[in-house]
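## retry 2 of 3
previous attempt timed out at serialization; input unchanged, resubmitting
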Amino acid sequence: EPLARHFAHKGRDLLTQFADVPHRPAPTSGAPLIIGATSWLECVTYAQHDAGDHIIVVGELIWAADADPDLGPLTHYQGNYSSLI
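## retry succeeded, writing output
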């Protein structure tokens, strides 16, 4: 939950957002994979679509792995976080 809140914060410095977050590079792109995540998905951008004041990015999966299958996913609903396990 603390990491989810960190990356959801609009005021974070995008250049240093991973400075205090344990991570390693993804095997194909080198994108940061957060240590302690339940799983990892590595994608390349397939398409982008304008959606009002947002852009919807569609990714093509190029690599995936379960980091810790015993951990459940973190959900966010109506401002609250919870785990499915």
